[in-house]
Amino acid sequence: MLDVEEVALKLRNKQHLLEQKADELSLTLTKGDGPVVQGSLYVLQERESYAQQELQQVKHAILRIKQGTYNECELCQKGIEANRLLALPYTALCSNCAREG
Asked: Are the C-beta atoms of residues 55 and 81 closer than 8 Å to each other?
């Protein structure tokens, strides 16, 4: 059985870590600390973008927990498998909808 409160705690911890990571990457990009060559600048921008996207997914999952819809697929409204939520706690889709999308 999935302990939603435990998942919520893990998601809030992940949110905090992602916010720190995104802030650090953003600061590095804006300040230009150290020698940054063009290729590594692109990599830093991609890492910042990925961190921001993941952060939004985590925030959305926390909101879904608060709303009581965490276990519900956003497309088909059926239940999201517990093992899927354990593996990817910020997923909003069941396995079937994720495959089809």
From this structure: no
What is the pTM (predicted TM-score) of this model? 0.80
Among 79, 82, 73, CA closest to 100: 73
Between CA 92 and CA 27 the distance in angstroms is: 30
**Structural domains in the chain, sorted by start:** 4-100 (1.20.120.910)
* pLDDT tens-place string over residues 53-77: 999 999 999 999 999 999 999 999 9
Q: In whole angstroms, how large is the CA radius of gyration of the chain?
A: 17
How many Cβ atoms are within 10 Å of 22's Cβ, its own excluded?
A: 19
Query: What's residue 68's pLDDT?
Result: 95
From CA 62, how far away is CA 59, in angstroms rounded?
5
